[in-house]
Amino acid sequence: MKKQILIAFIIVLGLFFSGCPSGDDNGKKPDFEKILVFQAYGTGEQGGAGVNRSFVELYNPGNKQIMLAGITLWFANGTRTNTIPEGSPSPAVVDSEWKSIELSGAIPAKGSFLILGPEKGSSANLIIAEADNDIYSSSFVLSNRAFKVALIESRTTLNASIQNPFDTDGNGTKVAGYIDMVGAANEYTPPTDPDQGEDTIYGFETAPARNSASQAVRRKDLNDTDDNSKDFIAARYNGMSADEMSLRRPRNSAHGAWDPFAP
Questions:
Q1: Can you give the CATH number for the domain in which 224 is found?
Q2: Is residue 8 part of a domain?
Q3: 181 backbone dihedrals φ, ψ, rounded to 5°
């Protein structure tokens, strides 16, 4: 009888622990169980010297394929303060209107997924063919001065009242279904010091990364600290050697598993 009670207790204990959610106390999934915004680049409307298309590369660091149905990529551009008409508020208090792309398909384990926009100039150092896309959108054009992209797993609609889905209220509250995001600016204008730079962006994790017409923002490793300024480096595609570019360039899902930090 005692043996039967002990076995029952062990079974109940096992069910209890197997039912506990993974991740930390806030329910956040470990980095190896979520999709990362791995790399992003903006051509602007006139094109950039680095890459011929705006792109966002997603990466799945986990050991299982992830289906993308129900996940939306949101994107918006910031403002360059020296383009604001004289007499207008400076800097702008909101970024441009959010646009969205509903994702589909799957991202392979330890693999990438590539969203591409239209070609903006053919003289860039890295030329990506339209056919290399996992998803193509003619409206997907990121600024080469300041932009933000966010992955949301829900039908949450982002509008002007939600400038930063990572921190909607200044107290760290994220929008429902938040997965990851990156915000970037060339010469960032902090709200507390509007004379410091020329570019505004109001959506990012903790602090923005740096981008330009020749530089993408690319993760320095797969450790996500929720600080864009520390998690991303400026990958200068203009002037990058052919050998380095063959490794660093963005991949689509057909490429399969790969190590984005191979030496």
A1: 2.60.40.1260
A2: no
A3: -160, 165
- The answer to whether the beta carbons of residues 141 and 44 sit under 8 Å apart is yes
Q: CB within 8 A of 75, min separation 6: which ones?
A: 56, 98, 99, 100, 101, 140, 142, 147, 148, 149, 150
pTM of the predicted model over 0.90: no
Write down the H helix ranges in 38-119. Answer: none
Q: Quote the tokens at residue 156.
A: 């949450």
Report the C-alpha gap between 203 and 200 in whole angstroms: 10
| Residue 192 phi, psi dihedral angles, 5° rounding | -85, -10
Strand partners, 39: 57, 218
Instruction: Kindly report the number of other CB atoms within 10 A of residue 262's CB atom.
Output: 6
User: Is residue 15 in a domain?
Assistant: no
Please state, in angstroms and rounded to a whole number, the distance separating the CA atoms of residues 107 and 98.
24
* The token pair that represents 68 in the structure block: 């993308």
Q: What is the pLDDT of residues 240-261, one digit of tens each?
A: 999 999 999 999 999 999 999 9
Q: Is residue 130 a contact partner of residue 56, using CB atoms and an 8 Å limit?
A: no
Q: Is residue 43 part of a domain?
A: yes
Beta bridge partners of 189: none
Strands 72-77, 36-41: pairing kind:
unpaired
Element (H, E) at 230: helix 228-231
Backbone angles phi, psi at 136, to 5 degrees: -120, 140
- Give 226-243 pLDDT, tens digit per residue: 999 999 999 999 989 999
Cis peptide leading into residue 91 (ω within 30°): yes
In terms of Cα–Cα distance, which of 42, 44, 45 is closest to 54?
Answer: 42
User: Which residue range(s) make up the domain with 80?
Assistant: 26-255
Q: Looking at the 3D structure of the chain, how many domains does it have?
A: 1
Domain presence at residue 260: no
Using alpha carbons, list the distances in angstroms from residue 204 to 129, 158, 192, 207. 29, 14, 16, 6
